[in-house]
Amino acid sequence: MIELFWGGYRLAFHKHMGNEYFSSLMCTLGCYFTFQLLIMVSASRTNEMAKKVQNTLQCLKYRFSRDLRETKLQEVCTKESNLTLWKIYVVDRSLLITSFGTLLTYGILIGTLGEAT
C-alpha cells in the first residue's frame, strides 16, 4: 500500500516525466493495485463465505443425528473464525473502499503541503 501511495504521488506531482518513466510507473502501480485488490477481495469473500456456511449449518442443524449435533456441529457453530487485520478489524468489502479513500486523501494532503500559495 505504501508503494501504491508513493507511485500515485509521483504520478500526480512529478513535473517533467519521460515516456519510459511514465510507462514503468504505470506498470508498477498496476501491479501493486492488482496485488492489493487480489488480497483484499479474496479475504473479504472468504469471510462472507464463512458466515454463509455457518448460517447454513444453523439451518440444517436439526437434520443431523443427535450425537453429531451435540459434538461436531456444536463445535463448528460456536467457533468464530474470521480473517482480520491484527485481530483489530474484520476484513470486509468496505475496507477496500476505505483503504483507497485513505490513499487518495493522504496523497492530496501531502501534495498540497509542498505548494506555495
Automatic annotation (TrEMBL):
Annotated protein name in UniProt: Uncharacterized protein
Top-rank lineage group of the source organism: Eukaryota
Keyword terms: Membrane, Transmembrane, Transmembrane helix
Record has Transmembrane helix as a keyword: yes
Transmembrane region(s): 21-43, 95-114
